[in-house]
Amino acid sequence: MAAPGPFRSPTSAVRLAARLLCWSLAAAMAGAAVDVLGRPRAGWWNAVWPLPWWTFAAAALAWTVLRAREKSGPPPPPGSAREDWEQAA
């Protein structure tokens, strides 16, 4: 039985990093749109709006490292579902 939790396998860690990558990019783009269109005057805005961009950069780096680690692993055993999926693709 697999261990519970989000980091039960390298594949799940790659998926979590990819989700963080997508959501941080969406938040960064939304923040940039608010910055351009809304011109917020709050004093904290200039310190906060770049945070999603930094998160995006960190998530991109994490995803790249995790994906390379996943790809460099041993090939799946014969007859596994992953092998069947790769053959179908």
Write up what this structure looks like.
- Helix 1 (10-38) packs antiparallel against helix 3.
- This protein has four helices and no strands.
- It is rod-shaped, with a radius of gyration of 19 Å.
- It starts with 9 loop residues before the first helix and ends with a helix.
- With 89 residues, it is mainly alpha-helical.
- The protein has helices spanning 10-38, 45-48, 51-71, 81-88.
Percent in helix:
55-70%
Return Rg in Å: 19 Å
Query: How would you sum up the major sheet?
Result: none
**Count of helical segments?**
4
Task: Please give the number of β-strands.
Answer: 0
Average pLDDT reading:
82
Separation, N- and C-terminal Cα atoms: 28 Å
Q: How do the helices and strands line up, and which of them pair or pack?
A:
Blueprint: H1 10-38, H2 45-48, H3 51-71, H4 81-88
Helix pairs in contact: 1-3
Quick synopsis:
The chain is mostly helical. It has helices at 10-38, 45-48, 51-71, 81-88.
List keywords for this structure.
89 residues; mainly alpha; 0% strand; rod-shaped
